[in-house]
Amino acid sequence: YNGFKVYGDNGAQIIPPVDSEIEAKIADNLTPWKDALDLLDLDTCLLKDKSKTIDPYDDALYTYIDQMYHELCRFPDLNKDCHLKFVYTAMQGVGLPFATGLMEKFGFPKDCVSVVEAQAHPDPEFSTVAFPNPEEKGALDMSKQQALDEDADYVLANDPDADRFTSCEKQKDGSWHQFTGDELGTIFGDWQLLMAHRRGVDPKNCLVINSTVSSKMLKALSDYYGGVY
Questions:
Q1: Domain ranges within the chain, ordered by starting residue
Q2: CATH of domain 57-179
Q3: What's the rounded mean pLDDT across residues 89-114?
């Protein structure tokens, strides 16, 4: 456990200066209040009996991967013949079992995906990066170098809590193009609309939404496929 997200009374995540004010309060109260530690003893009579507790992680992981396979895997036979090579980094977070589990379930050959081992497992200190956000400059240097060493085509990356994703594509001159969030959203949106079109889904049932800070590329795609933007 390495942190949490804080929401204000308006239901949105906090913004400056509230974040600095909270940080200052924490700094002023580094010494625990009297009797505060008593609240940390959560081993109740029920929890002390470990036979009455379960860890749902494995079941949840299996269920998630299985559900994603049935909902999203369109071309398992083509996946098996994939000749592209990927390097994946979990950015010292929790994404590894999900990313590699999905790739395996979807049928991609094991040798087409390699993992940045130094960043494969959770590390609360994030010792291999200056700032653990894959969108930050320099955060993917280790992944790119491994991809060059292994002659991989793409770098795939999650942030530590695996709710962000980015990708880099190797160019002909050996440099890397890191896709922006806008570009990735356009690629994913085009794929979803194309798959719906091929399955004969009524385009009026294809709703396309983007954030206010995104371009209108998804609108252009929606117009092309006849969707609702």
A1: 57-179, 182-225
A2: 3.40.120.10
A3: 97
